[in-house]
């Protein structure tokens, strides 16, 4: 599924909205009274601009209204009812001040003298200590990356954040992989919100990094989590329950027509916390693609080789809008209910120009054709969910949670391709329509043991996906003047339903002498049924599987996490989806199409790892992990020649991309993460992995292959003066084996600067992604029948200038927030 992003938000409208927020609070008051005053620094009497002043009702301490000081430190709150109030004045890095006063009919206007706020030296000390904690923390069964405390988390979206996460790699197209596998389960706040690696729902490059607090990486997840994928990435967003209005507004401007506004607001009052957010982008991206291949064609009687090339340039204009509306309500001290609705709208226009050649090997004749592909994509996504949480005050640790939700998708994807210059017109017009609904529900219960050293977790989950779609194909007539005619052989309507019930139970226990253990069992069933109307193409798959998991850890140091050794095991599943199994042709261009494999089997793997984390004096952290993965019925993409289409379509070599179980694949590797403060103003962090992979390509009739592969990343974070952060990061990814060839190395260098302004009320960020413009995707395929070289260059070198304004009690995190990275585009 292809999704887009876009929006162009006027600054004037954003300013009006921010101005209206405090007015809305004042409108709730209808009294004749007012209070004014001035906030100054206790040390030198200097005014405190942009500080927050909250007025609370003295009787019950509920919030009445709020104000913010101007540049001269003054404030005024009007239209107040008569009565007694508590004034609370607060500013970043200063101790709050409280005053109790009364407004009466005799004295309805009160002018407070200068209120002196003392510097909070203790608070500053605490912040410094927290910042020295390990950015990467090992917990039982997972690794937690504290994004807010990590200056190496440069980026404007979740993709950029994941680039800085150990065990995870992101290529030039934005595809996320873990230890060489892109088959992942990606969650948002623990919920299957439909977001994934090219799966339905909003893409990862549409989730702003400024909304992310932590990332949990589970390479060997416990039985509590879905068994699908090489691992689980859980993106945890920020929560704000401070009184009054809080949040931030940002505008990012990128080179060559790129814009990305965002607004995030929350208001906590009494038992309710309201959340509202908007994210948008309006981007133009450019791509370059080149390919060459030699194909051996045979009809049983004779053989011939055909050499083809294809060069193209593309331009994609993407527009994206996303709203996020939510309510968190405390039903009681022990019960909470949360509701959220997130509508998304995506549009994209694409234009690609191509030059194609074909030549029979040994012949001097070269046929040149010129192609143009256009696409207009419209996607609507609606996500909604409800969450319930029950705790027991008398039984600490006992918890019942439940959530249910819906992801509805409506997509319209018309694509047109026309080739000229050949023996006769070639090309196609293809209109795809997709309508999908994902329903999910889950109940989890946690019960600690009586002694508090263990806990039992159990849960049930049900997820279903219903998808209906159609593809209407037109092909050119022999006479160009007649235009296109229906291609019934490649037009179809399909529908399918996938039902996945699951249940699990896990138990963990803290043992004597620093030992702890966790074990669990999960069962998942898959019921997949569907087909193509009026065709003999149906899918009906049913299977039930068990997935055990276990983790054992030993604390070797005096404090938890100081010196830790951990071993874990998990059985995992790669469940093929409907489109991977449906044997129908979906053309990408006249020379390439995709087709499912009805005989495709699910892929199962056994995953083991042994990890060690050590926190050294001076704030240094070193983590080493040895891992192995043994996979059966490994699913891989396979490209073959469609000889019949090649001989009849007059467009050169036509290739079919499908999926197959290639046999057994094994990988063994070592992963290392190191973080070290060099000086007070310079911190360095590095992570890398190297693994040995084996592919037994039984289904491809090729020899077994094996090779070493790895990734490495180095980040330097500088704070040359207070309020200024500078970061320089570089990463590299080695050659990686594929089922029929290899993906060649790639790497890049990023630089970012952030300057805090107005006493941390705002931040200005400058970032250049892929500074040397080296991020490319190059792939080689080599089989006896087909030798192919593919080159794709996305617009990865982009300069971003961003401005962020922090509202209320919000403040900049310990990282550089800036514009999204370049890249993307149709099919990316």
TrEMBL record:
Residues 152-231 form the TonB-dependent receptor plug domain. Keywords: Cell outer membrane, Membrane, Signal. Residues 1-27 form the signal peptide. Residues 429-805 form the Outer membrane protein beta-barrel domain. The keyword Signal applies. Gene3D superfamilies: TonB-dependent receptor, beta-barrel domain, TonB-dependent receptor, plug domain. InterPro entries: Beta-barrel_TonB_sf, CarboxyPept-like_regulatory, OMP_b-brl_3, Plug_dom, Plug_dom_sf. It holds the Pfam family OMP_b-brl_3. The keyword Chaperone does not apply. Coiled coil: none annotated. It is found in: Cell outer membrane. This is TonB-dependent receptor. GO terms for cellular component: cell outer membrane. PANTHER family: PLUG DOMAIN-CONTAINING PROTEIN, TONB-DEPENDENT RECEPTOR-LIKE BETA-BARREL DOMAIN-CONTAINING PROTEIN.
């Amino acid at each position: 599924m292809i999704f887009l992003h876009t929006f162009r938000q006027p600054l004037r409208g954003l300013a009006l909205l921010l101005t209206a927020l405090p007015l809305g609070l004042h409108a709730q008051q209808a009294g004749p009274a007012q209070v004014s005053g001035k906030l100054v620094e206790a040390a030198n009497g200097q005014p405190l601009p942009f500080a927050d002043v909250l007025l609370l009702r003295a009787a019950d301490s509920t919030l009445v209204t709020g104000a913010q000081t101007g540049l001269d430190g003054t404030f005024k709150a009007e239209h107040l009812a008569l009565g007694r109030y508590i004034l609370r004045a607060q500013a970043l890095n200063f101790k709050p001040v409280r005053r109790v006063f009364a407004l009466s009919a005799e004295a309805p206007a009160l002018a407070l003298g200068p209120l002196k706020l003392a510097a909070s030296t203790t608070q500053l000390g605490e912040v410094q200590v927290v910042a020295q904690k390990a950015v990467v923390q090992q917990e039982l069964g997972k690794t937690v990356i504290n994004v807010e405390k990590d200056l190496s988390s440069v980026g404007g979206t979740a993709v950029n954040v994941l680039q800085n996460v150990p065990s995870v790699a992101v290529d030039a197209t934005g595809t996320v992989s873990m230890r060489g596998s892109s088959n992942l389960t990606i969650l948002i706040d623990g919920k299957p919100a439909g977001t994934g690696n090219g799966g339905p729902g909003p893409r990862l490059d549409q989730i702003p990094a400024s909304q992310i607090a932590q990332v949990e990486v589970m390479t060997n997840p416990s039985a509590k989590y879905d068994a699908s994928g090489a691992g689980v990435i859980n993106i945890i967003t920020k929560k704000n329950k401070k009184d009054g209005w809080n949040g931030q507004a940002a505008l990012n401007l990128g080179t060559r027509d790129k814009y990305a506004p965002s607004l995030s607001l929350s208001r906590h009052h009494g038992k309710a916390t309201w959340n509202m957010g908007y994210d948008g982008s309006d981007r133009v991206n450019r791509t370059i693609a080149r390919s060459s291949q030699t194909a051996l064609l045979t009809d049983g009687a004779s053989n011939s080789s055909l050499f083809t090339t294809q060069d193209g340039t593309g331009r994609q204009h993407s527009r994206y809008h996303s709203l996020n509306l939510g309510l968190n309500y405390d039903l009681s001290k022990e019960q909470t209910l949360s509701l959220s609705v997130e509508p998304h709208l995506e549009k994209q226009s694409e234009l690609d120009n191509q030059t194609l050649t074909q030549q029979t090997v040994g012949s001097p004749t070269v046929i040149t054709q010129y192609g143009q592909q256009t696409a207009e994509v419209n996607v609507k996504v609606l996500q909604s969910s409800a969450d319930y949480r029950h705790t027991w005050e008398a039984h600490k640790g006992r918890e019942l949670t439940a959530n249910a939700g819906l992801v509805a998708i409506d997509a319209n994807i018309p694509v047109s391709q026309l080739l000229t210059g050949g023996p006769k017109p070639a090309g196609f017009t293809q209109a795809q329509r997709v309508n999908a609904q994902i329903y999910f529900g889950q109940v989890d219960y946690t019960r600690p043991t009586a002694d508090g050293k263990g806990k039992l977790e159990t849960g049930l989950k049900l997820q279903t996906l219903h998808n209906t779609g159609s593809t209407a194909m037109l092909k050119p007539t022999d006479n160009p003047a007649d235009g296109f005619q229906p291609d019934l052989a490649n037009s179809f309507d399909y529908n399918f339903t996938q039902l996945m019930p699951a249940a699990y139970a896990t138990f963990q226990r803290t043992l004597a002498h620093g030992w702890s253990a966790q074990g669990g069992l999960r069962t998942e069933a898959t019921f997949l049924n569907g087909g193509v109307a009026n065709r003999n193409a149906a899918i009906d798959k049913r299977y039930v599987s068990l997935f055990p998991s276990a983790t054992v850890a030993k604390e070797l140091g005096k404090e938890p996490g100081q010196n830790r050794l951990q071993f874990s095991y998990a059985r995992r599943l790669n469940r093929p989806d409907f489109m991977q199994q449906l044997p129908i042709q979906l053309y990408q261009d006249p020379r390439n199409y995709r087709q499912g494999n009805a005989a495709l089997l699910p892929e199962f793997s056994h995953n083991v790892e042994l990890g060690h984390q050590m926190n050294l004096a001076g704030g240094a952290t070193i983590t080493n992990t040895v891992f192995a993965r043994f996979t059966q019925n490994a699913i891989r993409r396979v490209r073959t020649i469609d000889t019949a289409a090649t001989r009849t379509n007059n467009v050169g070599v036509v290739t079919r991309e499908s999926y197959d179980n290639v046999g057994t694949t094994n990988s063994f590797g070592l992963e290392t993460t190191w973080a070290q403060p060099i000086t007070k103003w310079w911190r360095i962090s590095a992570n890398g992995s190297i693994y040995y992979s084996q592919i037994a390509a039984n289904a491809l009739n090729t020899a077994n292959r094996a090779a070493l592969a790895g990734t490495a990343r180095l980040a330097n974070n500088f704070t040359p003066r207070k309020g200024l952060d500078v970061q320089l990061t570089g990463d590299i990814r080695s050659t990686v084996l594929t089922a029929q060839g290899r993906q060649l190395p790639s790497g890049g260098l990023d630089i970012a600067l952030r300057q805090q302004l107005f006493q941390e009320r705002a931040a200005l960020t400058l970032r250049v992604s892929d500074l040397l413009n080296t991020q490319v995707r190059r792939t080689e395929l080599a089989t006896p029948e087909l030798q192919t070289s593919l080159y794709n260059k996305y617009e990865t070198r982009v300069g971003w200038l961003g401005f962020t304004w922090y509202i209320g009690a919000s403040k900049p995190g310990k990282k550089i927030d800036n514009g999204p990275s370049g890249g993307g585009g149709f099919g990316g």
